[in-house]
Amino acid sequence: xxxxxxxxxxxxxxxxxxxxxxxxxxxxxxxxxxxxxxxxxxxxxxxxxxxxxxxxxxxxxxxxxxxxxxxxxxxxxxxxxxxxxxxxxxxxxxxxxxxxxxxxxxxxxxxxxxxxxxxxxxxxxxxxxxxx
Length: 132
Known about the structure:
Blueprint: H1 10-18, E1 23-27, H2 30-35, H3 46-52, E2 55-61, H4 62-72, H5 76-83, E3 92-94, E4 97-98, E5 107-108, E6 111-117, H6 121-129
Antiparallel strand pairs: 1-2, 2-6, 3-6, 4-5
Helix pairs in contact: 1-6
């Protein structure tokens, strides 16, 4: 089965799969993808597009996202980027809370979203290559 993967992400996605980490979705420049959204949708908001430009986006099952963050935390530079929000080179790791359609208690989404600066991509792949 063939799966479309952005060219720059092939080494990362391949290594994730080798490590048993399944991806649900990905994009090598999430801001560019959002910029192509129709006007009026939240994804088309210029502030969100600017924030996500030149950021890699991965959607993973929550357990796989936690495993990946643990593996990458072994690298001091990536650990800092993962733990400090709001800086230019910070990672953004989110697991949404979803409302029930008919009201009632919300639930945590089964997947997590990781956004990180594209300039970290090579370092991420290298750290994962050192992981067995």
